[in-house]
Design a protein that fits this description.
The chain has 12 helices and 12 strands. The protein is an alpha+beta fold. The chain is globular and about 60 Å long.
């Protein structure tokens, strides 16, 4: 966790008012990739890396958002937020404000400071953590409250409509509803979820390939369009297939030949990934780590070969990981095309694991990776004064 006294001081010096503080974490996804927008299953966990939002009301009809990370502020009239962004980091907080305005929530003038340590563009949901922290903060000054699930949905809308990134619900949901030491199995259709404890002797080790990815265009959207193309073909035969969640491997065997080969592969990934994800949650609950590790390996292979959303560097990272002592499972996590791998590693071996991976990866790729140790952490919440003081 970051030093929360830093952002408080920054805010007070900049805006002259004592702020209220909120945090929202990033996430890793243990399994279930590109299944959320097909109403499928995902099993992420919130992580120790988070965005902090410090907020105080101002008496004017405007909003200033200040980023400690970027060292800049953006100032806007509340009447000029609009409904689409301008490809700037401030689209995330202003997108959240726009959606709250559209929902009829009367957010008064405010000053907000954002500070975060979720690596940007690394597939760890820095965007969702900014959105969720911002929304909690703005709801506070609006003296409004919403259920966490609704907050997740509204933040997703901000990202889809204002930022223009066609993401699903996973990242915002787990940033809101994650729990300490637990993975979260989410049914992305009903939004029902159950928590499964991550065994105490395991660590989450996150290895950053340092290959950047971006969602606001490009490959993520292409994959989503391919999945939708395949779904439409199956729906012609089985109208009850609203999304790929409703389709089976048998459907693909029967009608897959009507799809372009790449579309067939994308659909096969999503349909089999849903099956693996539910099985992985059962395995985690039963402490069957062999099965969990095997499912993560199969998920990575499917992401690489059928969904074609991995990259050479991520494949190298995973291959290095599975050879290490104490590695239960490893795979590329998040939207794909770069970013981080998630590794479940016996804690006693975690340090050695990190050292070996960093050295091996550097040797093969000539890239110095970043390696983060994390726990599964709690979801978004207000930081109480005692939490602030205890960090000083
Ligand atoms: C990104 C999106 C999520 C999800 C994953 C892939 O993180 O924001 O909604 O689709 O990619 O599983």
């Amino acid at each position: 966790m970051q030093d929360v006294s830093g952002i408080k001081k920054f805010h007070e010096e900049r805006f002259g008012r004592e702020p209220v503080l909120f945090m929202a974490p990033g996430r890793v996804n243990l399994i279930g990739e590109h299944t959320d927008y097909a109403d499928g299953f995902v099993m992420p966990a919130a992580i120790d890396f988070a965005t902090l939002a410090a907020i105080s009301p101002n008496p004017n009809n405007n909003a200033t958002v200040s980023s400690v990370n970027f060292g800049v502020s953006v100032h806007r009239s509340l009447d000029e937020i609009g409904t689409s962004g301008s490809h700037h980091w401030s689209d995330y907080p202003f997108g959240v404000l726009s959606i709250l305005q559209q929902e009829g929530i009367d957010v008064p003038g405010f000053d907000m400071t954002l500070d975060g340590n979720v690596p940007l563009g690394a597939g760890l949901s820095s965007s969702a953590s900014i959105e969720v922290a911002s929304m909690l903060a703005m709801l506070h000054v609006a003296e409004a409250s919403l259920p966490l699930q609704k907050i997740a949905l509204l933040c997703q809308r901000a990202e889809n409509d204002y930022v223009g990134a066609p993401c699903g619900i996973m990242d915002q949901f787990v940033s809101c509803c994650g729990a300490a030491d637990q993975a979260l199995l989410l049914d992305c259709r009903s939004l029902e979820y159950r928590l499964a404890p991550i065994p105490k002797h395991l660590s989450l080790v996150i290895c950053n390939t340092m290959v950047k990815h971006s969602h606001a265009g490009g490959e993520y959207g292409t994959r989503r369009a391919e999945v939708e193309e395949g779904t439409a073909i199956l729906r012609r035969h089985r109208p009850e297939v609203r999304l790929l969640r409703d389709a089976t491997v048998e459907d693909l065997e029967r009608w897959g030949h009507e799809m372009p080969p790449n579309v067939l592969k994308r659909c096969r990934h999503v349909i089999t990934e849903n099956i693996r994800t539910v099985a992985a949650a059962d395995a985690l609950e039963a402490s069957d780590l062999d099965t969990l590790g095997r499912l993560m390996a199969e998920a990575h292979a499917s992401y690489r070969d059928d969904f074609e959303a991995s990259c050479r560097e991520a494949d190298i990272m995973v291959e290095l990981a599975i050879k290490q002592a104490g590695c239960v499972g490893a795979r590329l996590t998040g939207g794909g095309f770069g970013g981080c791998t998630v590794n479940l590693v016996e804690s006693a071996n975690a340090e050695r694991f990190a050292t070996n991976i960093a050295a091996g990866y550097k040797e093969i790729t000539n890239i110095q990776p970043e390696i983060y140790q994390s726990h599964a952490s709690a979801g978004a919440h207000r930081l109480t004064e005692s939490a602030v003081l205890s960090k000083k």
